[in-house]
Specification:
It comes from Mailhella massiliensis. Its EC number is 2.4.99.28. Peptidoglycan polymerase that is essential for cell wall elongation. The protein has 370 residues and is mostly helical. The chain has 13 helices and 5 strands. The strands form 2 sheets. It has a 3-stranded antiparallel beta sheet.
Length: 370
């Protein structure tokens, strides 16, 4: 790996670096609390936060490595990485590890690998490679070619089943398509047809996925079953009021009323302990994080770099909006982690790698012109 010119380090998006580390630090503090449970003998901690700290150190190394590598090399690696990820997705039904009725992980002994997280990374690279060929708006043929890049892994991921990760693949690719541009006649037909076709998706959903949508519309219809998660989450956030109950003082989380408190519902723990003010502070951090990333999208000097950065922007934007929306009851529960806050080793390393790629694009924006 060739080291970049020292002058490039002055062009690094240091605001993005600082916000990434700050978000991870907030996630670690929140995960420490989410790992704890109050029992009769005192306070017991699960090892989740320790594992996340190890993954965070690995992610930091990955982020620095991706930053030092010229992002233009990614274009050459896109096809082999995409093929490898498809192979891993094919292996999941055969050798995958089943957790809570879903087969999404491959047990490697020392760790569990989640190929659906790697699929997001592979689709980003392939999507940017396909879209940077020319600057013309997409017609029907080119649009179908680009969308097929995300549709194939989506079908594998939805079969696991993991609808949240599958939809993330499609949405981030859709964001890249909109950023690149679509011919008006194509966009007009899509805006008319998609709302008409979407209700048909109800019939291909699993029973539990249909139940999640019905529970989203009325959580009280099954308060001890499908609606339990969202009801306890809303109770936890609401009981935090303006400034919260204090660190490690949340009753819903510490007394184990709140399920999945270290993964999908991590922000409910933060809302109970730090209140509305704490949640708004976290949302502000995420907004600044996205703004720092958008500045790289805007300033990138070649089509591949700007398209890739735009895809990464939509990747984070979608996950942040959906996770917060489902925790407060504005969206159905789809199993979407909150970047840098929710527990998950594979997801954390992928997030750090994507930030590293954006930093690579940022520090090389004056090296050449398109």
């Amino acid at each position: 790996m060739q080291m970049p010119d020292r002058r490039m380090f002055f062009q690094i998006n240091w605001g993005l670096v600082f916000l990434t580390i700050l978000l991870f630090a907030v996630g670690m503090v929140n995960l420490y609390s989410a790992s704890g449970s109050r029992i009769e003998g005192g306070f017991v901690l699960s090892p989740f936060y320790q594992r996340q700290l190890v993954w965070g150190l690995i992610g930091l190394c990955v982020m620095v490595t991706c930053m030092l590598i010229d992002y233009r090399r990614i274009e050459r690696l896109a096809v082999p990485c995409y093929v490898i990820v498809l192979f891993l997705l094919l292996l999941v039904p055969i050798v995958g590890k089943t957790v809570y009725g879903a087969k999404r992980w491959i047990d490697l002994g020392v760790m569990n690998l989640q190929p659906s997280e790697l699929a997001k990374f592979a689709v980003l690279m392939m999507g940017a490679k396909a879209l940077c060929r020319d600057g013309e708006s997409l017609g029907w043929k080119r649009l179908a070619q680009v969308l097929s890049i995300g549709l194939v892994p989506f079908l594998f991921i939805a079969k696991q089943p993991d609808l949240g990760s599958g939809l993330t693949v499609l949405v981030l690719l859709g964001g890249m398509v909109l950023f690149h541009g679509v011919k008006w006649r194509v966009l007009r037909v899509c805006l008319l047809v998609i709302p008409l076709v979407m209700p048909l998706g109800w019939f291909v959903l699993h029973d539990y996925q249909q139940e999640r949508i019905l529970t989203f519309l009325d959580p009280t219809r099954d308060p001890r079953g499908a609606g339990y998660h969202i009801i306890q989450s809303q109770i936890a956030i609401g009981s935090g009021e303006m400034f919260g109950k204090g660190f490690l003082a949340g009753t819903q989380s510490q007394l184990r009323f709140l399920p999945e408190k270290h993964t999908d519902f991590a922000i409910a723990v933060l809302g109970e302990e730090w209140g509305f003010a704490g949640c708004m502070a976290l949302v502000t951090l995420f907004c600044l994080f996205l703004m720092a990333m958008y500045s790289t999208v805007r300033d990138a000097k070649d089509r591949f770099g700007s398209t890739l950065a735009a895809g990464i922007f939509f990747y984070f934007f979608w996950q942040i909006v959906v996770n917060i929306g489902m925790v407060v009851g504005l969206m159905p529960v789809v199993g979407m982690p909150l970047p840098f806050i929710s527990y998950g080793g594979t997801a954390l390393v992928v997030n750090c790698a994507l930030v590293g790629i954006v930093l690579s694009i940022s520090m090389r924006r004056f090296v050449f012109k398109s």
